[in-house]
Amino acid sequence: MSLFFRYIGFLYLKYFFFLFVSLECFFVVIDLVKYLDELPNSANLIVLLLVYDFMYASQFILPLSLILAQIVLMIVLLKNSQWTAFLALGYSKIKIFLPIFMLSFLMTFCFIAFNATSFAYAKEQVDLIINEGFLGNIKRDLFVKYNNTYIYFEKIFPLLQSAENVQIYEFNTDNSLILRMIESQKAVFNGEEWNLQNVTITNFDNILQIGQNPLTIQNEESYTTLHGFKPKILENIYERKGNISIIDAYEAIMLLKEQGVNTQKIRGLLYNLIFFPLFAPLAMICLANFTPNSNRYANLSLITLEMILAVLMSWGIFFSFSRLSISGLLQPEFSILLPIFMLCLVSFWALFKMIKA
Questions:
Q1: How far is the C-alpha of 167 from the C-alpha of 165, rounded, in Å?
Q2: What H or E segment, with its residue span, contains residue 178?
Q3: Is the confidence at residue 74, as pLDDT, over 70?
Q4: How far is CA 281 from the centre of its chain?
Q5: pLDDT 10s digits, 278-318
Q6: What φ, ψ does residue 303 adopt, rounded to 5°?
Q7: Spatial contact of 108 and 280, defined as CB atoms under 8 Å apart
Q8: CB 291 within 8 A of CB 74
Q9: Cβ within 8 Å of residue 257, ≥6 positions away
Q10: For the whole model, what pTM was predicted?
């Protein structure tokens, strides 16, 4: 790694760190003021609330900080005439920006990798601390369909891989006749299927005869069902706030396709987690193409204002499209993949232009 690469990279990371921490603290303080009357009495929960809120805010702050750090670095180099000096020494524009592009793509890919973990559920933990006063995960009153089975969960604990008060209704292949009803007070997911404990099974005889009881009741110590139906998938299929990780979103899409259920919202969540963070490094390549060679013939204040406005407006449009796709109003392929693809084409054109220059 050359001395020039380390120098430009250090300056960029310094400005990025200052901007990222400042904007994150501003976001967290605003949220803290909003939740001031609902804060828990426990100091540990307040600390966890701040940590999870900081993680949640990074989904919005990180892309903007990456771009704003590049703008600040560019203005500083132009004002100090270092930019012109680098060009005079034979460094091309693409070579000056290369360390910034590499660092931004690296941080973006790391952020996308974090979205495949429980990092994506930070907002859910914040809401749980505020609304319930404890840290954990619990969902109530879920009614789902799985193949020819309908299942009711009174309580489900995705992190504990368990559920309480489960009722299962099994139907025939065309869902016209009910075959049996299964009730259990406790169910545990063993990684592949659900194991129900202390089960009451009520079998229905669909051929009714006079003098015969159409119901047969039996008690079992255990009963296995719902192969591959994971607790986190159960939670996120009915999650209204769009909190889901990349892995859980992919598994939910595969499961919903098997059940013939519309996957539009889940696809929107998955595309948003994978492709939307790429907005920052791609936009940075586009902005780099408009950097002047000297501050003598350029109005730096006006250039800075134009770049910031262009970034905020573009980010707002992309963010609005992503929210509309998650809400189900627009197809995610049109509202997320297409804009990112178009931005990618523009950034490749800008990169080719800088290399050719």
A1: 7
A2: strand 178-189
A3: yes
A4: 18
A5: 999 999 999 988 888 777 777 888 888 888 999 989 988 98
A6: -65, -45
A7: yes
A8: yes
A9: 263
A10: 0.76
